[in-house]
Amino acid sequence: MEKREKYELLCKQVESLVDGETNVVGVLANVSAAMKSMFPEEYFWVGFYTVDLPSLQGGAGGRLLLGPFQGTVACYEIPYGKGVCGSAWKERKTLVVPDVEEFPGHIACSSLSRSEIVVPIFVQTDGDDEKEVWGVIDIDSTELNTFDEVDAMYLEKIAEILSKNIW
Questions:
Q1: Residues forming beta bridges with residue 138, ordered by sequence position
Q2: Which of 107, 103, 96 has the alpha carbon at shortest distance from 66?
Q3: Partners of 115 in beta bridges
Q4: Per-position pLDDT tens, the chain of length 167
Q5: What is the DSSP letter of 10?
């Protein structure tokens, strides 16, 4: 099966996993498991980091906290603007990193990670016209150049499915 076909199937699976579900931790756990199952060779680590609530509310904090994931042990928190995850949060955009060693300030939660993609998940907050970053999808590979615009497009679609159906 080609990458696009796998992602199309994964998007349908994610839609069914979130439909009517209010258990956010459970949803994120199942979605990370579905993602890892669909791409077992490509995804070394897949999971979520969520914005610390005071950060989302404009208060002190400025960090992402580890959420449900599949893979080896991970960093518990990532500061705003630091590493690939914190940078994707700060820049409010998907970051595709072909070689993590070339990314300034990369946070090495695992020395086995060689390439990475991070996709922000946006939510609408009360009274704001602009959506806020609620968290990120973080995926690592042990190979260089694993991720491309196809991954970015479909993972952004998955982030949108999550934001529309849970929050």
A1: 47, 118
A2: 107
A3: 141
A4: 899 999 999 999 999 999 999 999 999 999 999 999 999 999 999 999 999 866 555 555 589 999 999 999 999 999 999 999 999 999 999 999 999 999 988 888 888 899 999 999 998 777 667 788 999 999 999 999 999 999 999 999 999 999 987 66
A5: H
DSSP element (H, E) containing 115:
strand 115-123
Angle, vertex CA 1, rays to CA 8 and CA 36, nearest 5: 65
The letter for the amino acid at 94 is: T
Is the pTM of the predicted complex or chain greater than 0.90? yes
**CA-closest candidate to residue 68, choices 17, 142, 143:** 17
Those residues with Cβ within 8 angstroms of residue 54's Cβ, 6 or more apart along the chain or in another chain: 60, 61
Q: Bridge-partner residues for 50, per DSSP?
A: 65, 135
Q: d(Cα 117, Cα 97) in Å, to the nearest integer?
A: 6
CB 94, CB 88: distance < 8 Å:
yes
On whether the CB atoms of residues 162 and 22 are closer than 8 A, the answer is no
CB burial of residue 109 (10 Å; 0-12, 13-18, 19+):
buried
